[in-house]
Every structure is written in structure tokens, then in C-alpha cells.
Amino acid sequence: MAVSEVDFSRFERTKYFPSLDGLRALCVLLVMFNHIQVAIPPWIFGWMGVDVFFVLSGFLITTLLLREKERTGRVSLKGFYTRRFFRIIPIYLFTILLYAVVLRVTHDHAKTAQFKAALPWLLTFMQEYRPAADGTVMGHAWTLGIEEKFYALWPLLVLALFPFRGRALIGLGLTIAVVLTFPHDSCRSYGGLLIGAVLAIALSNSAHWTFVRKLPAIPNAVLLLLVLGTYTLSGHSPQAGRFPLFVLLFSGSIALLIASLVLRTGRTRTVLENPVLVYIGKRSYALYLIHVLALNAVTKVLQRFMTPNWVEVVGITYVVGILGAELMHALIERPCIAVGRRLSKQYAAKEFSSPQISA
């Protein structure tokens, strides 16, 4: 299939990019390998799936903020935080409740004790600071703690630095420099979020960030080799206590891939826009929340009948997890998102209709 560049005006008019949901579907599949209890091939690094999620989140959240600012001249912070609350919190609290029910039914006293110790960290989105002695129950929630802090602070910084010219760019650079001094996991996580955010800033004003016009010219094969190369380097390099250079390079390559997906058509975009992948991607948050429960359940059932391999465990878990995620999406996630959007529109209408003082 021939590749065609998408002009920036079309990019700015596009509200939804199905290929990014397709990318989410592959990411959550990769993450599953980080929690599987059977042997997996040495070339699969499941922990790197969250790094893709971080870049995607930084890009999409910043794009939404900048487009609202350009469209209306301001950003409704109340509306933004309302949408984030209803998007994230209800289904997250349901998952915590689900864990409590499962532990009660299975009478796993050791895991129950760990869950009780972890509960204060989980409810305050401080999971990344949870002591190792408190166990690993729902340990994958550490990524939500990172993202929640980003959602709380980044919109304020965006408004302070907008329109990202002159001194504002110095402020952005200082922010990135500070993040690079963080410990390994925080550096890699907030670094990935900021890499996605910088991409969104660049694409929001192509007249001032002229290099972005060259991004669609990068061949898909080169982009995929870059992603694969940095993925391999990251997976085989020591992580704990080291500066996450290769992980950040991987996040940078993912940002270039995202730019390609939103700026032009092509075979990679077509593959990721497959309806099945898009369907799964729209439910990826729910699937991420319950995938460890699903993995443990599938593994225990299979072990009663055979010695399962990673293909069987991950394949069956992916299907089971999608079924559970669909229920959560239909009964909790989608209705709550609708409430958040409705309230956000009401807040924005009230804020924008009230008299404003101009500077």
C-alpha cells in the first residue's frame, strides 16, 4: 500500500485515531507477559508495554488540552478533572472491590493480608511507593499512580507555558531536566509521558516546529526497525539503579511511530486499524486492570489438566480478559465516561458564558 502524507489541517480536524487503539491492544497483550507464571521466550519483555502506554497518554492528554485552548482560548480545568475522574476512578474502585471478593472466596489468607496492607496505597494512588514487604497484590496499579500525578499537574503547566515559545520552551526544558534526575522507574515513566506530550506540542504548531513536517517522510520499515532495536536494547540492559537511557530511547521511537500513525496512511496504520484490535484497544484500560486476576485464574485451571505453556496461558487469558473487560466496559466504564463528558460540557458552558477579565 502506498504511503500518503496527511496534511496538518486534517490532523487538527481529526478527533479520533483508531490506530492508537490498535496499538493499545498490542500493548496490553505485551504487559501480560510481565505477570505470567510460566516460562516465556527470552526476547519478550512484558514490562515495556507500560512504556508505550505512557507515551500514548502524554500525547493524547496534551493534544486534548492544546486543542481546547486553541479552540476556546482557555481550558476548563474543572471539566478536564471531571472527565479524568469518571474515566479512571469508578472502574478502578470496582477492580479493588473485585480483588477483595476473589480473596474472600478463595480464602487465601496470605494474599488477603497483603491486600489489606496495600489498600491505603491503592486508594491514594501511591502504589509506586508501596513497601516490598506489603506484597504484590494488584501491584500493576503503580502505573495508575504515575499517570494520576501527571494528570493533576501537567494541565497546570500546559496553561502556564502555552503557547510554548521563547521562555516557555526554557520552562519545558527545565521540566524535562528535572524529570531526568528522578529514580529509574519514575524517570522512565514521567519521561515517557513527557515524550508523548512534547510530540503533541510539536504537532499542535507545525509552523514553529518545522521538523515535524519531515516525520511522515521516515519509511515505516525504518520506524519499525528503530522500535525493535530500542526494544531489544532496553530489554537486555540492566534496569534497577541505572539511568533508563535505552527505555527513553524506546519511548522516543514509539513517539515517532505515533506521529507516523496520525500524520499519514500506510500499511502499519492499516494493520493497527483492524476492527478487532480497535475493539480491544477501547477496552484496554479495563483489560489492564483485571489481566493479573485473569492470568492467575487461567493458569490454575490449566494446571489441573496439564503443564501449560506460555502460548496457551496468554492466549486463553487474552480471550477471558477481553470478555471480562467487555462487561466492565459496558456496565461501568462507558456509562461513567458519558456522565463525565456531560458534566464537563456543563461546567465548560457555565465558565465560558460568565464575564471574563482580559489581561
Question: What does this 3D model show about the protein?
Answer:
The chain has 359 residues and is mainly α. The protein has one domain (4-37, 50-343). It is 72% helix and 1% strand. The chain has helices at residues 8-13, 18-32, 49-72, 77-106, 109-123, 142-161, 167-179, 184-204, 220-236, 245-263, 267-272, 275-282, 284-303, 310-353, and strands at 4-5, 264-265. The protein has a two-stranded antiparallel ribbon. It is globular. The relative contact order is 0.17. The model is unreliable at 354-359 (pLDDT under 50).
Kindly report the average pLDDT value. Answer: 90
- Binned strand content: under 5%
The description of the largest β-sheet is: 2 strands, antiparallel
What helical percentage do the residues reach? over 70%
Which runs of at least 5 residues are low in confidence (pLDDT < 50)? Answer: 354-359
Q: So what's the overall shape?
A: globular
